[in-house]
TrEMBL record, chain A:
Family as reported in the entry's similarity comment: Belongs to the nitrite and sulfite reductase 4Fe-4S domain family.
Protein name: assimilatory sulfite reductase (ferredoxin)
CDD domains reported in the protein's UniProt record: NirB_Fer2_BFD-like_1 (cd19943), NirB_Fer2_BFD-like_2 (cd19944)
Source organism, top-level taxon: Bacteria
Residues where siroheme binds: C699
Catalytic activity annotation: hydrogen sulfide + 6 oxidized [2Fe-2S]-[ferredoxin] + 3 H2O = sulfite + 6 reduced [2Fe-2S]-[ferredoxin] + 7 H(+)
Job of this protein: Catalyzes the reduction of sulfite to sulfide, a step in the biosynthesis of sulfur-containing amino acids and cofactors.
One of the record's GO molecular function terms: 2 iron, 2 sulfur cluster binding
Organism name: Serinibacter arcticus
Top class in the EC scheme: oxidoreductase
TrEMBL record, chain B:
Record's keyword annotation contains Iron: yes
Species: Serinibacter arcticus
Ranges for domain Rieske: 38-144
PROSITE patterns xrefs: NIRD, RIESKE
Keywords on record: 2Fe-2S, Iron, Iron-sulfur, Metal-binding, Nitrate assimilation, Oxidoreductase
Keyword Cell membrane: no
Protein name: Nitrite reductase [NAD(P)H] small subunit
Molecular function (Gene Ontology), one example: 2 iron, 2 sulfur cluster binding
Biological process terms in GO annotation: nitrate assimilation
């Protein structure tokens, strides 16, 4: 049969997470290009991770919430219409009409319209100051309102925090309460039911959860119905909640989190069947009763109900993608396991959490002092796991959830005891057990990633299987599976630095620091392979460690031989073996005289000059033997080493700040100069970059730095763990509104904690990712001194600052060190004749191999060694 | 700077001697070389009856063994090998002295010049491992033996 080459047209209504998954799955599998896809989204942005909405408060950047690879939306078979609602469906003509009146035909139609927040019929629910919690815009509006109220409160004669209330004590309500607290508002959760999260956990768990929530300074009122929201007489904004029991609560902001309602109005208008409580009725293949129309996600009423969780939505998207390509997938039933994403509060429930299975038995372990409640629901013979609830400590959740329906080895109560008390046997997950429910990845697929696709680390496994790429709660389990599998293959998951040291960089750092060893010979004998002399990996690492534990000049004695090639000549080697030279310009600030001096040096030595990304000038094409003369002139002009060659602090980029800028609120240049002069020369596992912006406009792009500082009206916000490069990351908020002294101590500790514990060549972002507890751990160590090392770190940084000397100046003063710059040990006056250059845009560049052979276009290497 | 000029002097003499093709060239003093850090040197070899200058990299180990390899990096063609990191590597149970290219980190066996780790890169056409020269230290003077047939 001749194949129609024109692809068929799939129209997807809705631009949420399940729509994204459908498009992603279809494009991944439809290798023949038999479908082109049009997606109509109400929101003015690409699909984003709604599950992680609360993180928008700490990250403040919608981009951080984006899902998957952006390239999907550049696919020529995919068209995404953002901010374009569909207003009508004609199932007979097989067309959709959008809000611009455009009529588009479809071959197949998928409804993925999701839900809207249900607004309870309480008088006053439409008052200014009452919000729902569903989209980025909702969250942004809430944020703006709280900030405005705070400002208004500060101006008034009284000074009190913004008072917030959340109506609804489910998953979303608790996240909203956490968000209010993060915004600096008070929060009280009003729950109609008998306990918090009553859809997921039992009363015992609810009680424990309430204590934990109270511990976060969030008030909780259970069994409370709201009668009315009453406006303030002065402002007309929401001002008070009246409850049915006659009590009241004064408020400045209210968040409604009382549930969701499927958005089935389009479907109703088109004559599709809807369920009793709403939702488009579909069968187990996600097909509606009308031919060529499907529904997936929260709008789909499947097996009699709508499910407000992302995992079942993803499962439905996969089914439709499969069916569109001629497959026969069917819906396996919803996995309703849930985990609360609120920092500091661990809550999880899975399977038959309420012990509704006949003759099931519950095993409970509770520690009211620690705020921990754990329960397993087992079959009557106490062997098969049916479900469970975890509050306060959900560490066992990831490994137990996939075991639902399987026999647990050993005594089930062992799984409930606190970690470290031993007891719980290692679980061997069945191949079919779902490890990542967001992406429906089984234990077998994770294992296969290692055994068949040769993945040897967690990053590769994530890329290969997608496990752990959505909510991330399964990552500990994926890590464990990968580790076990690698071990089985005889691939040791080694943290060894290299063949000479079995220790990791962090372990070696501690060993050297505690033992007080000062030379490589001593270190390799004590902690490395006896008789070996190291390599290009461990020698620079030891040099870097010693730079902090036993500060000395980079070229001092034996240490010189440990330095990487760049540190050894204190310049950056280029492809032809010449070097580039970068003097420090702290904060990107330079005087006209300084600029002229640099220009003269570059001119006299014929150097190619370019402005760097770090706000300074790079001069290329210097021969090794020219470096001391060049530096003699730069130092005379007041410059010092910029450490562009080192795994060390590079630059502190800044915007011009409040001294000149009409928007600036703090003096960002002064702070940048102060920070750059403080941390200059600090040797670290990888390069470190800082940035300081003088206001929230962020012209210094500080959040793209390892440490970014952004001015606020009250001081400085500090962000950590950003970088550009191969995997760009935005820095995350570490602390807010710090004064300058506190800010400096926070950065001191952050940097030295990183220097102590990161792996070689690991920037701050991956370091934090690897760190158990991530940002929270950093916060605890840096702000609360949870490890009791703050005094140590402070002393270490004080020593660094006190001991700093410009290493180029010190080199020029020492003939022994200058010897290293001789081009040839037996011909000090000669130069490498192979360094040859051609002109480019008024400057020079290295000649290519062809140009060398041709010979004619060459310009002489710079030999003008003027020393006036 | 006295050692430096002494070395330069020694080298000048050696070059003069070498021009008459005695099969070796005295390059510098052992003390001119820093242990475990390479130094570049110029060698005058005779190729097809013509003198030709070759850049070599000299490496002095902690045990005062001196090894000579080509200064040119086989992967990029840049004359930089003497600026690479020196170390050792276990090859067939033996601790072998090594030199890593400062540009793309290929690791070479300093005794044979063989590439032990290509670091995912190919050498340029006509290049492979590092060329080596036999070295003797005679009365504190580093003497490179010229193997005319190899050039």
């Amino acid at each position: 049969m001749p194949q129609d080459t024109e692809p068929r047209h799939l129209v997807v209504i809705g631009g949420g997470m399940t729509a994204h998954r459908l498009v992603e799955a279809l494009r991944a599998r439809d290798t023949a290009g038999s479908w082109r896809i049009s997606v109509y989204a109400d929101e003015p942005r690409r699909p984003y991770d709604r599950v992680a909405l609360t993180s928008y408060f700490s990250k403040r950047d919608p981009e951080e919430l984006s899902l998957g690879d952006d390239a999907l939306w550049h696919d020529e078979l995919v068209t995404l219409h953002t901010g374009t609602p569909v207003t009508a469906i004609d199932t007979a003509a097989r067309t959709v009409t959008d809000d611009l009146g455009r009529v588009t035909p479809y071959d197949e139609l998928v409804l993925a319209t999701g839900s809207s927040a249900a607004v309870p019929p309480i008088p006053g629910a439409d008052l200014p100051g009452v919000f729902v919690y569903r989209t980025i815009d909702d969250v942004a509006a809430l944020r703006g309102w709280v900030a405005e109220r705070e400002q208004a409160g500060r101006g008034a004669s009284y000074d009190r925090p913004v008072r917030g209330a959340v109506i609804g004590g489910g998953l979303l309500g608790l996240e909203a309460a956490g968000a209010l607290r993060a915004l600096g508002a008070q929060a009280t959760v009003i729950q109609f039911g008998s306990h918090l999260m009553n859809a997921q956990i039992d009363l015992g768990g609810g009680e424990a959860l309430k204590r934990l929530i109270n511990g976060m300074e969030v008030g909780v009122r259970v069994g409370t119905a709201t009668k009315a929201m009453v406006p303030s007489r002065r402002t007309g904004h929401v001002g008070r909640l009246d409850f049915t029991d006659g009590t009241r609560l004064d408020v400045d902001v209210v968040v409604l989190a009382t549930g969701i309602r499927p958005r089935d109005e389009l479907a109703r208008a088109a004559g599709l069947t809807v369920g009793e409580r709403g939702g488009v009725v579909v069968d187990d293949t996600c097909a509606t009763a009308v031919p060529h129309v499907w529904a997936i996600g929260e709008v789909a009423c499947i097996q009699g109900s709508c499910v407000g969780l992302v995992a079942p939505g993803y499962a439905m998207a996969e089914i439709v993608a499969d069916r569109l390509l001629g497959g026969a997938a069917t819906y396996p039933g919803a996995d309703t396991a849930t985990k609360l994403k609120l920092s500091g509060v661990d809550v999880a429930s899975f399977g038959d959490a309420f012990a509704r299975t006949e003759r099931s038995m519950e095993i409970v372990w509770a520690d009211p002092v620690a705020g921990v409640y754990k329960k397993l629901v087992m079959s009557d013979d106490a062997r098969t796991l049916l479900g469970g609830v975890f509050v306060g400590d959900a560490s066992a959740y990831a490994s137990l959830r996939p075991m639902v329906g399987a026999e647990l080895p050993g005594d089930p109560s062992a799984y409930l005891l606190p970690e470290g008390t031993g007891g719980a046997p290692d679980l061997e997950l069945p191949e079919s057990a779902t490890v990542c429910s967001c992406n429906n990845v089984s234990a077998g697929e994770v294992r296969a990633a290692v055994t068949e696709h040769a993945c040897t680390d967690i990053g590769a496994v994530k890329a290969c299987t997608k496990a752990g790429t959505s909510c991330g709660s399964c990552l500990p389990l994926v890590k464990k599976l990968v580790g076990t599998e690698l071990e089985r293959l005889g691939i040791s998951v080694s943290t060894a630095l290299c063949e000479h040291f079995a220790l990791s960089r962090a372990q070696l750092y501690d060993a050297v620091r505690l033992a007080g060893t000062r030379t490589f010979s001593e270190i390799v004998e004590r902690f490395g392979r006896t008789g070996s002399r190291g390599c290009d990996i461990c020698r620079p690492v030891v040099a870097s460690i010693l730079a902090t534990t036993a500060p000395a000049h980079v070229l001092e004695g034996e240490r010189a031989s440990l330095q990487d090639t760049n540190d050894h000549v204190m310049a950056n080697i280029q492809k032809d073996g010449s070097y580039s030279v970068v003097p420090r310009m702290a904060g990107g600030e330079v005087t006209p005289a300084g600029l002229i001096a640099i220009g003269e040096v570059a001119r006299d030595y014929g150097l190619y000059t370019k402005i760097t990304g770090g706000q300074r000038v790079d001069m290329f094409g210097a021969r090794m033997e020219q470096l001391p003369e060049i530096w003699a002139r730069l130092i005379e002009a007041g410059f010092e080493s910029g450490h562009a060659y080192g795994k060390s602090l590079r630059t502190v980029k800044s915007c011009v700040g409040s001294t000149w800028c009409r928007f600036g609120v703090q003096d960002s240049v002064a702070l940048a100069v102060l920070l750059e002069l403080r941390y200059r020369g600090l040797r670290s596992p990888h390069k470190i970059k800082l940035g300081v912006s003088g206001c929230a406009r962020e012209c210094a792009e500080a959040r793209g730095k390892d440490v970014g500082v952004i001015a606020t009206d009250n001081g400085w916000n500090v962000y950590v763990g950003g970088n550009g490069g191969f995997t760009p990351r935005h820095a995350q908020l570490l602390a807010e509104d710090l004064d300058t002294d506190t800010l400096i101590r926070v950065i001191d500790r952050f940097l030295l904690y990183y220097v102590r514990t990161a792996d070689r060549l690991q920037r701050t972002a991956p370091w934090m990712e690897d760190l158990e507890g991530g940002l929270e751990t950093v916060r605890a160590v840096v702000l609360e001194d949870s490890l009791g090392i703050a005094a140590d770190l402070d002393a270490e940084m004080d020593a660094h600052v006190a001991n700093y000397v410009d290493e180029w100046k010190a080199t020029l003063e020492d003939p022994e060190k200058l010897r290293k710059f001789a081009p040839f040990v037996n011909a000090p006056g000669e130069s490498d004749p192979d360094l040859q250059y051609v002109p480019v845009r008024g400057q020079i560049r290295p000649a290519t191999a062809e140009e060398r052979r041709a010979g004619a276009v060459l310009v002489a290497p710079a030999t003008l060694e003027v020393r006036s | 700077m006295s050692t430096l000029s002494a070395a330069a002097e020694a080298a000048t003499d050696a070059t003069a001697v070498d021009a008459t093709a005695v099969g070796h060239q005295d390059v510098c003093l052992l003390t001119d070389l820093t242990p475990e850090r390479g130094a570049a040197a110029l060698l005058t070899e005779t190729v097809d009856g013509e003198p030709r200058r070759t850049q070599i990299a000299l490496v002095r180990t902690v045990g005062d063994l001196v090894l000579a390899v080509q200064h040119r990096d086989p992967v990029t063609g840049a004359n930089v090998m003497a600026r690479g990191l020196v170390g050792t590597r276990l090859v067939d149970g033996e601790e072998v002295p090594t030199l890593a290219s400062p540009l793309h980190k290929q690791v070479y066996d300093l005794r044979t010049g063989a590439c032990l780790d290509a670091a995912g890169k190919e050498p340029l056409p006509g290049e492979g491992g590092l060329r080596t020269w036999p070295v003797a230290v005679v009365d504190g003077v580093v003497r490179v033996l010229l193997d005319e047939s190899a050039s």
